[in-house]
Write a structure and sequence with these properties.
The chain has 200 residues and is of the alpha+beta class. It contains four helices and five strands. Helix 1 packs antiparallel against helix 4. The two termini are 20 Å apart. This is KCMB1 protein. Pfam families: CaKB.
Length: 200
């Protein structure tokens, strides 16, 4: 009687462990799919892939410009902010080009090097833009990214999804997938030895 209870408890434990392993594998596959349709397209679409050094030529704060929202509505989501324009000398080609914060900055407003968040108020935006401009004037030389193919003549300060960030995004689902497969293999090995010992 006690042996039957132990066998039943063992089978229940194996079933739960197997369900856990399968659940981890399924979750990791969903994470792979989500990363594949969100982060990977932005990474592959970016043409600013080569790192070089940029030297600041001028950093000017222009008059306030409107920032339209991404939906393209006329009134809602539009707010004025100081337009910071940073021009740099590209070491790789010696050209004078405009610097943008990220790839997204160029798409949101190609006239400005920095586009603030809409949640910030006007005072915070003005102070932040002034700090950024002073930092560019203080640190004249810094690494930047340019397009080696020449389709984009401007440069960006940092990539939204650099190679390290993409590898980090794939790290957690990979660990989850590996752990799930390991649990499934261990359960199968345990079941095999249980059947083998019962047969003997």
């Amino acid at each position: 009687m006690l042996g039957k209870k132990l066998v039943t408890a063992q089978k229940r434990g194996e079933t739960r462990a197997l369900c856990l392993g399968l659940g981890m594998v399924a979750c990791s596959m969903m994470m792979y799919f989500f990363i594949g349709i969100t982060i990977v397209p932005f990474y592959t679409k970016s043409v600013w892939t080569t790192e070089t050094m940029c030297k600041v030529l001028k950093a000017n704060i222009m008059d306030k410009v409107p920032c339209p929202n991404s939906e393209g509505l006329e009134d809602e989501g539009i707010f004025p902010y100081p337009c910071l324009q940073v021009w740099v000398n590209l070491t790789a080609s010696g050209q004078e080009v405009m610097l943008y914060q990220t790839e997204d900055t160029l798409e949101r407003n190609p006239k400005c090097s920095y586009v603030p968040d809409k949640s910030e108020n006007s005072k915070e935006v003005k102070a932040r833009v002034e700090i950024i401009a002073s930092n560019f004037k203080k640190y004249q030389t810094f690494p930047c990214y340019y397009d080696p193919g020449g389709t984009q003549t401007n440069v960006i300060l940092s990539r939204l999804y650099p190679p390290k960030g993409l590898l980090f995004a794939f790290l957690w689902p990979t660990l989850m997938f590996t752990a799930g497969c390991l649990i499934i293999v261990l359960v199968k090995i345990s079941q095999y030895f249980s059947v083998l010992s019962a047969w003997q």
